[in-house]
Amino acid sequence: MSQRERADSVGPDDEVMPYSDDETDDELDASSEGEAVEADPSAPEPALGTNLGWRVKVNDRPYHQLPEFQKKVFLCIKKSKYSGNGIKTYKYNAFTFIPLNLFEQFKRAANLYFLALLILQIIPEITTLPWYTTLVPLVLVLSITAIKDLVDDLARHRMDKEINNRKTEVLLDSVFEETKWMNIQVGDVVRLKKNDFVPADMLLLSSSNPNSLCYVETAELDGETNLKFKLGLKVTHERLQEENQLARLDALIECEEPNNRLDKFTGTVHWSRHSYPVNLDHLLLRGCKIRNTNVCHGVVIFAGADTKIMRNGGKTRFKRTTIDILMNYMVYSIFALLILVSLGLAIGHGFWYEHVGSLAWYLYDGKGQDSFYRGFLSFWGYIIVLNTMVPISLYVSVEVIRLGQSKFINWDLQMYYAEKDTPAKARTTTLNEQLGQIEYIFSDKTGTLTQNIMAFKKCNIGGKTYGDPTTDRGVSLDRGRPVDFSWNSYADPKFEFLDHNLVACIRSQKDKEMLEFFKLLSLCHTVMVEHKEGELVYQAASPDEGALVTAARNFGFVFLKRTQDTITIQEMDRECTYEMLALLDFNSDRKRMSIILRFPNGLIRIYCKGADTVIYERLAPNSPHKDTTQTSLDTFANETLRTLCLCYKDLSQAEWDSWSRKHQAASVATRGRDAALDQVYEQIENNFLLIGATAIEDKLQDGVPETIANLAKADIKIWVLTGDKKETAENIGYSCQLLTDDMNVHYGEDVNEKLRVRQALRRNVPPTFGHKKKPPEPFFTEPGKNALIITGGWLNEILYEKKKKRRRLRLRRLGRRPLPESPSDGQPINDYEKEMRQVDFVDMACECEAVICCRVTPKQKANVVSLVKKYKKAVTLSIGDGANDVNMIKTADIGVGISGQEGMQAVMSSDYAFAQFKYLQRLLLVHGRWSYIRMCKFLRYFFFKNFAFTLVHFWFSFFNGFSAQVAYEDWFITLYNVCYSSLPVLLVGLMDQDVNDKLSLKFPKLYLPGQQGVLFNFKKFFISLFHGIFTSLIIFFIPYGAFLQTMGQDGEAPSDYQSFAVVTASSLIITVNLQISLETSYWTFVNCFAVLCSIAIYFGIMFDIHSAGIHVIFPSYFTFTGAASNALRQPYLWLTIILTVGISLLPVICIQFLSKTIWPSVGDKVQRNRKKYEMQAEEEKRRPAFQRGGRSRRSAYAFSHSRGYADLIASGRSIRRRPAAAAAPAGAQDSIREANREAENI
């Protein structure tokens, strides 16, 4: 047996969705694990229902408050374990806002640091600066941040209020009353009407439809817009239709505890001394929408936080950007530097006082303090003086920049989707620059890459292909016009087809095979139909089925109605009724469905449609058109269309009678019924005659292939994580150009085998300590691109996840299974080996150009994202549209929600939201890249200007006896970061751009510096530090030298301390404002005005606070009376300022010139040729559309993700007449088409 066969024989089922984490005890049985475990005869039988720990009493609210259902909340405070139905996502209320917000803000190290500084400044013996120099900026920072938090929280309040205050009808005191969602409790009976959202997880009791059928749309949960049916119990359907009957209901429901399993529910209803089992088919989940059902009733099982949709939301994680984390480490580094510098200066002061200060009689202050104590006080004094190395305004400036960048995203008209009036929305303001560093994108498929709308595009009938643009005589056209179906009164006006020849052939009714082809499409399906206002309304279990029946309808074969045992269609202009003898429904193993019919003339025929791989195995040897149809199938597959083969066989009466008896026996088998039915189906589904094949397009959203290609050029890897079948996911991978023909595709069994070999080699090689770790060898040594397609079952198998491991560990504890000792055992020996297996899988996946994970649960999606974050330290983005993507969205560094027809659950949990996948490239390559560049430039400059400002005090210390005397005036220190130097750098952080948006999209390689983090890191931080040190040296020592032994024009020496402070401050302000001018790439009038305005504001305020008038009013606070006017009237000092600024900026200008000339970056090259590229873009014609693949592939047809409606049809439950007690009129039902139309027009 080959390795692949061996893997297949023991591998998981690719079609089955694996379990999620919230298993119940009954799921840990041996059968669910696929492990043959001998039953212990001595073991006692488990008690029935012991795992059903959730009890719900209908119409009895006090029951759920009993002491046995109380749980401890805090100390001795208890509350009911049953959640209320209100949801709460806000953080503050009117009473907690101020204390909680201040508490959160002071958890930030910088704010706490400045609060401690403020306290130090109040102490007279320590303070070297007035208290207001710290208080004013601190209050400003806290206030701005608090206002921003308040605005965000008010938005959450509004959203919660909107949801919690939705109205529904609840049975209270024997009467249905309109009640808010938040007031619903477990056990309440709720009445819902058509198009209502389900407010909680409810057990369906009855509905206005026959047999209490209820159709729901689960777009909020899984993004699927096709309808699914739910079913009430027969007993509740018959006895619980009227209001008084519902009011008398006193049933007790036992079920599993709340969990996140969307695919499973187990429970029992105890009523009138009888017990009735219930399952997922009876459960209406919160977030679903009632469709095609006038009225339904249900009892609340799980409410609020206990509902499955809320349980799938995952933990809300506090997200921080890489720059945030880096910035915090840099602030800590500055703290350490501050302490070391202050300590050194304090030691210097002690030494100076010991040898100089204590010996100078004119410095005697009468305090009697020794040099050590004075050094101690000097240490704290310098902590206060040099505190501006840690800029208090840094964080608030960052928040302002992020807020502005978020607004630019919201206002971007190129991300506005006019069809649904949906603009892009930045739902957070803290992650913008992270958008410029994305390395991995994890995308859902349905509703994210695709529209989930199927269109009948082509077909092959009798060996001839139809669907390309042609005339009615078969002449091919380059561009066709849609066929006019006005001759068919039943035609769907939205259906488009370009082949006029096919329609002409059908209308001529000469080609019997062609008529048989469309007759099969109109008869072989599980679609239900209803006539509504003169129109046909189809309800299909999958959009594929709906597309095929709609195609047959437009070509003249109209499905009109069905009963339990008949189907009526209109064949062109003639109505025919066929007797349905048997319906062999689709499932994931069979990959086909069949129907056996008796024609009006007595002929018995079986029609079958299914995947080409299974149909060709069942064709008769003499079946025609096999080769030509095979060629067409290959062509369809290369065009990434979803293919399906159609065939038939005539049966004799004797064959039917013989097979019918076997079928009846298998249908009533008590054990192994499914296997018995499959075996019987195999006996009749053979020797078919091939009619042809269909090709359906799963429509991609506009611009998806181009977006994926552009993001790939930016070195961003895209992984698709979907709950869809493997074939469907693979086809979409080729459609959207994620997979290409030159890729080697590897599947789960191949991956598992490679990882098993790597694990075996690791076990055989002894661990080495003290040696440098060698980089791992690549998994794919062959040349060429690789891609990975893996199912959820294989993912669990590979990563040793969940119950399989837990089951084996439990068996080991019981002594039933030995510990693994050899590499042939697939299980890990210890946690280290499990971790290394995960590392190997991530390494292998990251070697691939594309990764598709299909049939994965919401929890598995989040786990895959976590693995890449954990082992690759990469910045990740998740994008999805349904509630099953919420966990993934919350886990990734950035979460993006697609807002559209699939509901708002993903959007509510996302950081950014827009309507189309194609907007992702603009979000990343334009807004993300700009935000990253702006933030990096802002931070580098901010650190520089504060080092240049603060370190002047350091140099001044060597000339003032290390006495913590400041080099500037107090008010200059207070206003430096607030007024004098903040506006230009804020505008750079908000508006700067190296190239425009069109060039950013044209050259995706410009995105690479963000991924590599080269624009802001510790290297750049230390460059800013040394740049600040150099500038502070120039700013201090050139004025110092100019003031040394200098005489002014009036014969007075301008070498006093206050004049020196004015000159150094003026030099600093002009230098830092011109420095940001050199850093600015995108000049506007606003930038120019900001630079000049900042300098003007400085001189204006300085002359005001140095005036005699303000000194008279506040003599103790404004002590530099006349200093500015006295100093700045000296031309000599203006020359000093000009010299200082020139020498400070000259090295920067030289370095920038050399770097852009000799070592230009990609951005520099694009910027240099910007005009040329812009002219090329204007002249460039529209690029041709992406071409389909050229390789022959199988493109298996994907039916619905769950079973069809065959059970309902065959049993007649959907059409059974209502009993007298339940004679409510059957409601008119909406169609799948109506649902899609409604969704498209939102």
**Largest sheet geometry:** 9 strands, mixed
Across the major sheet, the strand order is: 16-35-34-33-17-29-32-31-30
DSSP strand content = 15-25%
Which structural category do the helix and sheet elements fall into?
Answer: alpha+beta
Output mean pLDDT: 81
**Poorly predicted segments:** 1-9, 20-50, 816-825, 1185-1201, 1216-1242
Task: Give me the count of strands.
Answer: 35
Question: Shape, please?
Answer: elongated
SSE map:
Layout lengths: L2 H8 L19 H4 L20 E4 L12 E5 L2 E4 L16 H9 L3 H14 L9 H33 L2 E6 L2 E6 L8 E5 L7 E7 L5 E5 L1 H4 L4 E5 L2 H6 L3 H5 L4 E4 L10 E6 L2 E6 L3 E2 L4 E3 L3 E8 L5 H4 L10 H34 L15 H15 L7 H18 L14 E2 L13 E4 L6 E12 L2 E3 L33 H9 L3 H12 L4 E5 L2 E5 L3 H12 L2 E6 L3 E6 L2 E11 L7 E7 L5 E7 L1 H4 L10 H13 L3 E10 L1 H15 L5 H12 L4 E12 L3 H10 L3 E5 L4 H10 L7 E5 H17 L20 E7 H8 L2 H12 L17 H17 L2 E5 L3 H15 L3 E5 L5 H6 L2 E5 L6 H4 L3 E3 L4 H39 L12 H11 L2 H9 L5 H6 L5 H5 L5 H26 L13 H23 L5 H21 L2 H6 L9 H5 L3 H28 L3 H7 L1 H10 L26 H6 L20 H9 L2
Parallel strand pairs: 17-29, 17-33, 29-32, 30-31, 31-32, 33-34, 34-35
Antiparallel strand pairs: 1-10, 2-3, 4-5, 4-6, 6-15, 7-13, 7-15, 8-9, 8-14, 10-11, 11-12, 16-35, 18-19, 18-28, 20-21, 22-23, 23-24, 24-25, 25-26, 26-27, 27-28
Helix pairs in contact: 1-22, 3-5, 4-5, 5-12, 5-30, 10-11, 12-29, 12-31, 14-15, 18-19, 20-29, 22-23, 22-25, 25-26, 29-31, 29-34, 29-35, 30-36, 31-36, 34-35, 34-39, 35-36, 35-39
